[in-house]
Amino acid sequence: MSQNNSNDFLDPLHAVEKVEAPAFLFSKIEQKIRYVRENTVSKKVAVVWVTSVSMIVLLNLFILTQSSWIPTEKNNLLQSLQLQNSNSLYP
Amino acid sequence: METSLQELYTKYGKLVYNLSLQYVQNKEDAEEITQDVFVAIHQSIDNFKEQSKISTWIYRITINKSLDFIRSKNRKRRFAVLTSLFFSDGNEAHKETSHFNHPGVLMEQKEKLQHIYDLINKLPPNQKTALILSKLEYKSQQEIAEIMNLSPKAVESLVQRAKTGLEKKLKLSEGKQ
Predict the structure, then answer these.
(1) pLDDT score, position B89
(2) Which of B6, B93, B149, B163 could form a disulfide with A6 if both were Cys (CB 3.0 to 4.6 A apart)?
(3) A23 CB near a chain B CB, below 8 Å?
(4) B140: pLDDT confidence band, cut at 50, 70 and 90?
């Protein structure tokens, strides 16, 4: 009974007709494909970009971690010139 | 490649357009979805493994694109409503709302069908899909199961739940009138 009622209220849906797709739609699709092709970055280019950026970041990190010798050198220079590296005037 | 896409369009263009119309009930939106579907087909036709029929594959793409389109439209609508609360231009909220413009619906049945479609649109996505495929695309339970990647039993239950939910909503709305 409930099944029949369900089908009754859905019966108007049988009146929905199939329609033809608009004639110009395929040329619009071609246009969109061309647009997408021109405006998307290929996988190869993306991989090259990511690799080069990460290389630069790694190189920077490497230089920063290796630069710990700089203060030592500076200290050596201060020592060799017998200069004070603090603000205390009376050692 | 271009010719094979044209062949696919000749064969399945009408199917894609009509199926997306069942989801959005608006000519312009269905055209946009059809475009997106064929762009997706063009991009992934090389990866299509013939484990399923090509029509099943196209059905799946159309369903996913239609649901994505609806989701994105709802998101835009919510955003417009939110912005309209803070800015004076309250008309913005209504710009994204599509009106019922289904070319397959006759004028004399428009009001009745618009009401049924409004209720179908309120169903959860999987129930809506099962109902559309069964009642508007006249697909068998087995075909729907293949398209939705479910068991026939699960499809039967989805369709039944959709019909029951719809009937309740219909009675409720009739009671209000």
Answers:
(1) 57
(2) B163
(3) no
(4) very high
Of A16, A25, A28, the CB nearest to B136: A16
Closest CA to B28 of A74, A91, A28, A37: A28
> Which phi and psi (to 5°) does residue B48 adopt?
-70, 115
Q: What is the mean pLDDT of residues B11-34?
A: 96
Shortest Cα distance, chain A CAs vs residue B44, angstroms: 12
Candidates B25, B27, B158, B163, partner chain A, best to mutate (most A CBs within 10 A): B163
A19–B104 CB contact, under 8 Å: yes
DSSP collapsed to 3 states, chain A = CHHHHHHHHHHHHHHCCCCCCCCCHHHHHHHHHHHHHHHCCCHHHHHHHHHHHHHHHHHHHHHHHHCCHHHHHHHHHHHHCCCCCCCCCCC
Question: Model confidence over A35-90: pLDDT tens digits?
Answer: 988 888 888 889 999 999 999 999 999 988 876 555 566 667 777 777 776 777 67
Q: What is the Cα Rg of chain B in Å? A: 18
Q: Residue B38 corresponds to which tokens in the numbers above?
A: 């064929």
The answer on pLDDT for B74 being more than 60 is yes
Examine the predicted complex and report whether its ipTM is higher than 0.90: no
Per-residue model confidence as pLDDT tens digits over A7-18: 578 888 999 999
Q: Is residue B100 less than 8 Å (CB to CB) from chain A?
A: no
SS3 B101: strand
| Secondary structure of residue B26 in the 3-state scheme | strand
Closest by CA to B22, choosing from B135, B109, B111, B124, is: B135
